[in-house]
Design a protein that fits this description.
seven-stranded mixed β-sheet, 21% helix, alpha+beta, four-stranded antiparallel β-sheet, 4 helices
């Protein structure tokens, strides 16, 4: 795959942000982000890599190396790393759409010019990929949303969006792993627990996992 040189910028005294976006989100670019993130862990002085949506945060020890050196090595990795799809786990997540715990469903349908039933059908028909985990422990940024269903985030975030809320933000889908503020739109609810600090593996989903939503019920 031919790739352009990514934009690399400082993110503090011990971190660089590699932006590999080629316009809109691209699944092939995300696979390269994952691969470069893994490869960068072998670089001297690199402490951690954190994949985002078509970007990569690289944390390094500024006493062991410097930003310019890490940046040049990241460019080399980006140009020379072969990306392959991640063999993730498949999850089917049951969703109750609308009602008190999916309060934006009707407005979402009106915004997109579709019926509530058609919105739900399209949302549940897609196969989503966990592109990244971030924002809060266990929160999945999901690619794969039908472009017809995209809806820009709210101008004013809600201060309390419940754990299990199934949400839409721009061209991405997501699920709230805990109750927290969010500017995404709430279209349904699931009882699947995404984050449990007491569990042996606290985070349920990982980058590369696939998700299908199953319709439990619809309440307009």
């Amino acid at each position: 795959m031919a790739v352009k040189t990514p934009k690399i910028s400082l993110a503090g005294s011990g971190a660089l942000l590699l932006d590999g976006a080629q316009g809109a989100f691209n699944d092939a670019t995300q696979e390269l982000v994952w691969a470069v993130g893994n490869a960068a862990l072998t670089l001297e002085g690199v402490r951690e890599t954190v994949p985002g949506m078509n970007n990569l945060l690289v944390l390094f020890d500024p006493l062991a190396t410097d930003a310019q050196d890490i940046g040049e090595q990241l460019k080399t990795l980006w140009a020379g790393t072969n990306a392959h799809p991640v063999a993730g786990t498949h999850h089917t997540i049951s969703v109750s759409y609308g009602g008190a715990r999916g309060e934006d469903l009707a407005s979402w349908a009106a915004h997109c010019g579709l019926s509530v039933d058609e919105m739900v059908r399209r949302h549940a028909a897609a196969t989503y990929t966990v592109a990244a985990i971030g924002a809060m422990p266990g929160f999945p940024y999901l690619s794969g949303l039908d472009p017809r269903l995209a809806w820009a985030r709210r101008g004013t975030p809600r201060l309390k969006v419940a754990e299990g809320a199934v949400i839409i933000g721009g061209a991405q889908a997501g699920i709230m792993p805990m109750t927290a503020p969010s500017g995404w739109h709430i279209v349904g609810h699931t009882d699947v627990k995404l984050f449990d600090v007491r569990a042996e593996a606290p985070v349920l989903l990982r980058p590369g996992d696939e998700i299908r939503f199953a319709i439990a019920d619809i309440e307009a």
